[in-house]
Design brief:
61% of the residues lie in helices and 12% in strands. Strand 1 and strand 2 form a beta hairpin.
């Protein structure tokens, strides 16, 4: 047996394995190309993966309340945005209306897929694996899930997310 004791200091030292790297991304501002730094996680923390998926599902619940194709088409961009939010230093909004605006700007500036392509492929697979497990769990418990959705006060949630 060793003399190492599990404590806060040991946990913090262990967390050092979740390193970030800085990547520069170009933006054209006033017809001039400028570069902006963004820190990107090389290894995703399990807690960040959970937060990303929870955030994504939270927004997806609201999006599915609409019968508008525009919102249904946002499923993938919302997931990519949540990955950017949780695995980079991007200062991301939390209200759905602002998120949609930022997604459009990221897409229009060609940055959404550039940023996501900088993620470690194995880490992205971890997110997809957890998301698939959640989806399978929802499928198995669809009756409970429907009851849960119906129990939510979506009007308040919409007002909170849109900031109205």
């Amino acid at each position: 047996m060793n003399n190492n004791k599990l404590n806060l200091e040991a946990l913090e030292l262990s967390n050092n394995r979740y390193k970030k790297r800085v990547v520069e991304f170009p933006l054209y501002i006033n017809d001039k190309e400028e570069y902006f730094d963004l820190e990107i996680s090389e290894v995703f923390k399990p807690s960040d993966i959970s937060a990303c998926i929870e955030d994504y599902l939270d927004k997806l619940i609201v999006l599915r309340q609409y019968n508008n194709e525009y919102f249904q088409d946002l499923n993938e961009p919302i997931l990519l945005f949540m990955m950017i939010k949780h695995f980079t230093s991007f200062d991301a909004p939390s209200k759905l209306g602002e998120i949609v605006k930022v997604i459009k700007l990221l897409l229009d500036n060609g940055l959404m897929y550039k940023i996501v392509s900088e993620f470690n492929e194995d880490e992205v697979k971890k997110v997809n694996k957890v998301l698939n497990e959640v989806a399978n769990n929802i499928d198995k418990n669809v009756d409970n899930y429907i009851e849960y959705i119906e129990s939510l006060n979506l009007k308040e949630k919409l007002e909170e997310m849109y900031g109205e």
